[in-house]
Specification:
Elements: H1 6-18, E1 26-34, H2 41-60, E2 64-66, E3 69-79, H3 84-97, E4 102-104, H4 109-122, E5 126-128, E6 144-146, H5 156-164, E7 177-183, H6 186-202, E8 205-212, H7 220-229, E9 233-237, H8 239-252, E10 259-262, H9 265-268, H10 270-274, E11 282-285, E12 294-295, E13 299-300, H11 301-312, H12 318-337, H13 342-350, E14 353-356, E15 359-362, E16 375-380, E17 383-388
Parallel strand pairs: 1-3, 1-4, 4-5, 5-6, 7-8, 7-9, 9-10, 10-11
Antiparallel strand pairs: 2-3, 11-16, 12-13, 14-15, 16-17
Length: 406
C-alpha cells in the first residue's frame, strides 16, 4: 500500500524486539491516517509529532498497565494525502485489514468527518485532536471523542476583545464593523458561524462576508474590499495556508485594520516566515505553554514545550500539544477499563475526567471536551503573548494596531 509510512513499520519492529526482553511486554497498536502530503502537510506533521512524542514518553515510563498486563504503545500510520476519500479508505484498511481496534484522529474537520462513519460502523473508538467542527458532535456518534475545543469557540475571544476595546477605537461595541474572510471548508465555516453568532450577540455590523476557495493562495480581492470599506475588525480562517497568505498580503498591500484576528498563526509559523509583518496579529489557539495545566507524564505545559523543542527543534504549535493529549487520553482509558475490549474502552473514554499539560479533559454525551477554553495570542515583539481571556492574559492587547499607511 503506497500510503503506509515506512517509519511506522520500523518503530513497530523495534517495539516487537524490545518486547522479547525481560519484561516481555506486549504491544497495543493505535491506527492513524494523517496528512503528510497535500494541503495539510504542515499541520499533519505537527499532529504526527505530537502522537509520537506522547507514545515515546509513555513507553519510556514503562508503558500502560491494562489489567494484569503491561503494554507498550505503537502507532500504525498511513498518509491520507489530505484527501477525505483517502482518509476514509485508510481507516477502513486499518480496521478491517490491519486489525487495529483504536484510532487516533486525522488532521482537519473534513477528514475527521470522513473517517467518523467508518469507526462508528465497526465500533472502534477514535480519540481525535484536530477536528473541531461542531457538526461532528451533532451526528449521534458514540465512538468519537475530541480533546480540543470546538470550532465555534475559536474566535469568540477575539470578538469579545474587540467589544472590550471599543473605546480605544473611538466607538461603542454596536458601532464596530467586522469583515469576515473564511475558507469554504467544514472547519472554517463552523468558525464563521461562531463569529456570526458573536457579532449578533455583541450588536456588531458585518460589512464583508467572503467565503474563499479551499486552496487559499490569494486574498487580494477581499483585502481590496477591506481597504475600501474600512472595517474595525478583520477575522480570517483558512488553516496554515490561509494564515500565511493573510499575513503576507496584508503587509504587501499595506492594508490597515485596527484588529486582525485569525486561526492557525502558529502552525503556519507566521513569526518566523514574515517577521515584522506578523506583529500585532491576534491568533486563536487551543493551548499556550504559559498556562498552568500539569500532569504526571510531561509535567507542565512549559515542560512539554521544552521537550518538544528539544526533540523537533521548534516551538510546539497547539496541534502538536492536543495530539499528544489524545494519546494520553487513550492510555488513561485503557488503564481504567482494565481491558482492551473496544466497547469497554469506549465506556472508559466517556467517563474521562483528567488534567493533562494541554488542559482539562472531560467529555459530554456527544464526545466534546467541555472542560477546556480557547486562548488568544497576540504577536508582540516576535513572540506569542496570551492577551485573552483576561484572567489568563500575560499582557494587555495592543489595540488598535499601528497604522502602516497606504
Amino acid at each position: 500500500m503506497k500510503y503506509l509510512l515506512k517509519s511506522s513499520l520500523v518503530a513497530a519492529a523495534a517495539l516487537a524486539v524490545a518486547g522479547t526482553g525481560a519484561l516481555a511486554q506486549e504491544t497495543v497498536t493505535l491506527g492513524a491516517a494523517v496528512s503528510l502530503t497535500g494541503k495539510y502537510t504542515t499541520d499533519g506533521e505537527h499532529t504526527k509529532r505530537g502522537y509520537d512524542l506522547a507514545v515515546d514518553m509513555i513507553n519510556k515510563a514503562g508503558g500502560v498497565k491494562v489489567g494484569d498486563k503491561t503494554y507498550q504503545i505503537a502507532v500504525k500510520y498511513y498518509d491520507d494525502e489530505s484527501t477525505p476519500a483517502t482518509g476514509a479508505a485508510l481507516a477502513e484498511r486499518l480496521i478491517a485489514q490491519d486489525g487495529v481496534k483504536f484510532l487516533l484522529g486525522p488532521y482537519s474537520s473534513g477528514l475527521t468527518k470522513a473517517i467518523a462513519p467508518v469507526t462508528e460502523k465497526y465500533g472502534v473508538p477514535m480519540v481525535e485532536a484536530n477536528g473541531a467542527s461542531r457538526s461532528l458532535f451533532t451526528s449521534g456518534y458514540k465512538y468519537l471523542f475530541a480533546v480540543l475545543s470546538t470550532s465555534e469557540q475559536y474566535l469568540s475571544s477575539a470578538m469579545d476583545l474587540a467589544a472590550e476595546k471599543a473605546a480605544a477605537l473611538g466607538k461603542k461595541p454596536e458601532e464596530i464593523k467586522v469583515a469576515l474572510a473564511f475558507e469554504n471548508d467544514p472547519f472554517s465555516q463552523d468558525v464563521r458561524a461562531g463569529v456570526l453568532d458573536d457579532a449578533k450577540r455583541l450588536g456588531m455590523q458585518i460589512v464583508i462576508d467572503d467565503q474563499l476557495p479551499k486552496e487559499l493562495n490569494d486574498m487580494a480581492a477581499t483585502l481590496t474590499k477591506v481597504r475600501a470599506l474600512k472595517p474595525d475588525v478583520l477575522v480570517i480562517s483558512g488553516h496554515a495556508k490561509g494564515a500565511a497568505t493573510a499575513v503576507r498580503q496584508i503587509s504587501e498591500m499595506k492594508v490597515d485594520v485596527p484588529i486582525v484576528a485569525m486561526t492557525h498563526c502558529d502552525s503556519a509559523d507566521v513569526v518566523a516566515k514574515f517577521g515584522a509583518a506578523a506583529e500585532y496579529t491576534l491568533c486563536a489557539s487551543q493551548w499556550a505553554s504559559t498556562l498552568t495545566y500539569k500532569d504526571n507524564l510531561f509535567g507542565s505545559a512549559a515542560d512539554f514545550a521544552k521537550l518538544f523543542n528539544t526533540t523537533y527543534n521548534y516551538e510546539p504549535p497547539y496541534q502538536a500539544a492536543e495530539s499528544a493529549a489524545a494519546v494520553m487520553v487513550f492510555a488513561d482509558a485503557f488503564q481504567r477499563a482494565g481491558t482492551l475490549d473496544p466497547a469497554k474502552v469506549r465506556d472508559a473514554l466517556a467517563a474521562t475526567d483528567m488534567q493533562t499539560f494541554y488542559g482539562n479533559v472531560k467529555f459530554d454525551e456527544t464526545g466534546k471536551n467541555i472542560a477546556k477554553p480557547m486562548v488568544l495570542f497576540q504577536v508582540l515583539k516576535g513572540e506569542y503573548r496570551v492577551v485573552a481571556p483576561t484572567k489568563w492574559a500575560e499582557t494587555e492587547a495592543v489595540v488598535p494596531r499601528p497604522m502602516m499607511g497606504n
